[in-house]
Amino acid sequence: MHIKTEGDLRTDVPLWAVDGRAFFTKEIDRALLDNKIDVAVHSLKDLSTTLEPGVDLVAVVERQDPRDALLARSAKSLADLPRGARVGTSSLRRRAFLARLRPDITPVELRGNVPTRIEKLERGDYDAIILATAGLSRLGLSNHISAYLPVEDFTPAVSQGAIGCCSRSDDSETARWMSPLDSEAARLSTTAERALLRRIEGGCQVPLGAIARFGTDRLHLYSAVCALDGSQYVNAEGDCEPTVQAAAALGVRLAEKLLEKGAADIIADERGLRRPAAEAP
Question: Whole-angstrom Cα distance, residue 161 to residue 42?
C-alpha cells in the first residue's frame, strides 16, 4: 500500500515552518489504526515521542551509524569549505550547529529524497550538503560522504539511524512476530533519547540533538541545544544502568539539566514564543 505523508507533499515550505509534528508518520499510523495495514515501519527520528492512542512501538531494529555526514563537491572536511560556502540542509538542528562552528557559511534549504539531494549537489546548487549517514548507507550511497561529523559537534537527531516498527495495541499476534527484530541496545539508547525529547517538548523544528551510547556496563547519554545563529549553546550528559526504566529516567534527568541551563529560552526564541521570565520553568 502506497501512502504519501504531509512531509512528502509539503515541498513548498521548509519542514521547520510546517505547523504540528509527525509530518512523515501520522498518515501511516492512521492507516494502521484503520486496519489498512498491520505494521508501520518508520525512521524512528520521525516518530513522535507520544504515540497515537492504540499504537505500540513493538520493535526498534538494530541501529546504524547515527552520525551526520558532510557531502561536498571538493572539500574533504567542514573546515575545508571556503568562506560563504552554500551548505544545504532542511534541519534546524544542523543549521544551528553549523552556525556555531562555521558562522561564515551560508545555510540553504534542501528538500527531496536522498538521490535528488545528491544530484542537486553535483550540479552545483550547493557547495556541500549534510545528510544522515544511516540513510546514505541503507541506499548504498556512502561513497558520496566527504567527512563524518563528530557527535560532540553535530549531536545527532534523537533516534537518528534507528528504525521503529509499530503495530496496533490490541494486535498481540503481530507484536509477537515482530519482537525478534527488537534490538536491546537500540531500544535502550532510543528510549533515553526519546524520553529527553518528550520532556523538552521538542520536535523536528527544534535545534536539539541527543545520542546515547554504551560503555562497559553503563548507558551514556549526551545532549545539546543550540540557538539557530549559534550564539547560545547548552549541553548535558550522564549515565545509568542498562535498563529501559533507568534509560527513560536518565532522559528526563538530562532534560531537566538542559532546561535549568536555559534550553527552554533558546527553544522559545526559535519558535518566536519567548515567555515572560516569571513563567520560565
Answer: 11
The per-residue pLDDT for 203 is: 53
Kindly list the catalytic residues. 46
Kindly provide the residue ranges of all beta strands, DSSP E only, lying in 32-95, ordered along the sequence.
40-43, 55-61, 68-72, 86-88
Structural Rg of the chain based on CA atoms? 19
Q: What is the pTM of this model?
A: 0.87
CATH architecture of the domain covering 6-64+158-270: 2-Layer Sandwich (3.30)
User: With b meaning 16 or more CB within 10 Å and e meaning fewer, what string describes 141-154?
Assistant: beebbbbebebeeb
Q: Which amino acid is at 114?
A: V
**Cell output for 59:** 520493535
User: Domain 68-149, CATH 3.30.1330.60 — does that match?
Assistant: no
Of the candidates 166, 234, 178, 170, the one whose C-alpha atom is nearest the C-alpha of residue 29 is 166
Which pLDDT tens digit goes with each residue over 154-211?
999 999 999 999 999 999 999 999 999 999 999 999 999 999 999 987 555 678 999 9
Name the nearest CA neighbour of 178 among 60, 263, 280.
Answer: 60
Positive or negative torsion for Cα 160, 163, 168, 171: negative
Which of 83, 61, 266, 268 has the alpha carbon at shortest distance from 182?
61
For the chain, the domains span: 6-64+158-270, 68-149
Q: How far apart are the C-alpha atoms of 225 and 148, rounded to whole Å?
A: 20
Burial degree of 39 (CB within 10 A; 0-12, 13-18, 19+)? middle
Dump pLDDT digits (tens) for 122-136: 999 999 999 999 999
pLDDT digits (tens, 9 = 90+) for 93-106: 999 999 999 999 99
